[in-house]
Design brief:
Layout (H helix, E strand, L loop, with lengths): L1 E5 L6 H9 L2 E5 L12 E6 L2 E6 L21 H13 L5 H10 L8 H16 L6 E2 L10 E2 L12 E2 L8 H4 L7 H8 L3 H6 L2 E2 L1
Parallel strand pairs: 1-2, 1-6, 2-5
Antiparallel strand pairs: 3-4, 7-8
């Protein structure tokens, strides 16, 4: 199966299941940047429940995703890393992956696409996998690949069935499905890839 995926920031677990289970993967880089999506945000499990982390971007009207620049008006990298550390420092595997995860936020590109791709590359190294992908050469309204560009909503419940697993704050708030893959990595460790491969669409 060939799939067309959006380029997300620390993508949700379901995104990684599509990514790893596909035969061939294409990443969309020429779409008009849609606001309030995972392209510049991720969701982790904080001490007060679901916690969105949003990369600030320079607003210059509707533009292709591959031209979107990150705003450096605030020190968002430090804020995001601090939030991740606070959320997962007591999880079973955070200490094991901490140094590698920290590398995500030392990448100094102003390009949102480049930053996201670098983060995905680091996650792949953590998962000890080397899934290849292609970047699109143009925007296609009716792509030949199975189109997942609008399938992952930051506002709606996940369309994937995810088996419950232990989360740091689940005793307090219950299980939160389909968070950033970081949540799975910090709580499941070496079992992360197996979990991802077993996810099915509802």
């Amino acid at each position: 199966m060939k799939v067309l995926l959006p380029i997300f920031y620390l993508p949700p677990i379901s995104w990684f299941s599509v990514f790893h289970n596909a035969e061939e993967v294409y990443f969309e880089q020429f779409e008009n940047f849609p606001k309030q999506t995972y392209r510049n945000r991720t969701v982790i499990y904080g001490a007060n429940g679901r916690l969105p982390l949003i990369i600030p971007i320079s607003h210059k009207g509707t533009r292709a995703l591959n031209t979107i620049e990150i705003s450096e008006r605030e020190d968002w990298r430090s804020l995001h890393w601090k939030s991740i550390k606070n959320a997962y420092q007591s999880s079973p595997y955070f200490e094991f992956y901490e140094d590698r995860l920290a590398e995500i936020f030392s990448f100094a590109s102003s390009s949102l696409v480049d930053f996201n791709l670098n983060a995905i590359s680091i996650i792949q190294k953590i998962l000890k996998t080397e899934k290849q992908f292609h970047l699109t050469n143009s925007y296609e309204f009716t792509p030949i690949q199975q189109d997942f560009r609008s399938e992952f909503s930051a506002k709606q419940p996940s369309a994937f069935e995810l088996e419950e697993y232990y989360q740091t704050f689940s005793d307090k708030f219950g299980f939160e499905p389909d968070l950033s893959v970081i949540d799975l990595i910090c709580n499941k460790g070496p079992e992360t890839l197996t979990y991802i491969k077993n996810i099915i669409t509802k």
